[in-house]
Design goal:
270 residues; alpha+beta; Glucose Permease (Domain IIA); eight-stranded antiparallel β-sheet; three-stranded antiparallel β-sheet; 27% helix; binds zinc ion
Length: 270
Amino acid sequence: MAIVAVLTANFFAGCATVDQKFGDQEWYQKSKSVSAKAVEVTSTTASKAYGRMQKYLAEKDVLKTFQDAGEHSEIAVLGVLHKSGIASTAAPPTATPKQPKKHPLQPAPLTTVPEQYAGSLRWPLDAYIVSSEFGERWGKLHKGMDMAADVGEPVYAIADGDVIYAGDGLRGYGNVIILRHDRKTSSLYAHNNELKVKQGDHVTQGTLIALLGSTGHSTGPHVHFEIRDGDTAVNPRAVLPKPKVADALQPPARAATAANWQPSTPAVAP
Ligand SMILES: [Zn+2]
């Protein structure tokens, strides 16, 4: 019992000791306050998404009916991919590429794009109900996954990349974004209510790119989401991390708080 009491006392004394040691130093005050703010923002976003997820789960019978209402133009998408040099049939970039004219609406030239994206991927939505899986549908291949939610649900970039298309000119897709992540990989987000980025923009993972909607061939608010390797659409579930939807059935994990936060050694001595 005595040992437990000593350990417990030491544990609770830990933060106070750090405060006493560094408490009057500016870098410590500053990083402690930044850390507390970051935790606050993260936990607010997470708990709001958790709230929306509860709502979607309660309405899931209706949400499951929100899908594509017809064919999308495959030719139009391939046209965008080929134009950006991403398709499997694209010629390899030459050693001394001609410098294209700088134009704000043109994405970066392919030679500046990584050969293979090195980071991890994230899901395009924080809260949703999958209403139609990738695979055989209507006797054809459904090249994406349909994810239903309310109009205005934020849609995020799954990885760093360039916006190679942002508009409503691809038949069936409505307001659609196409991102290029490396020389072969692209992702597509269709039927949005509103687009938040434009062609030529560079985005990082988690950038808000659109607000979900029901434009184009659609039976109700959802994102038709595709990932492609060259010309070929792949099953998003095969490449995305395990979905967080299951987590939404549980209360969000207790976030770190300023009280249990520990400072790391500052890079530059104050
Ligand atoms: Zn779809």
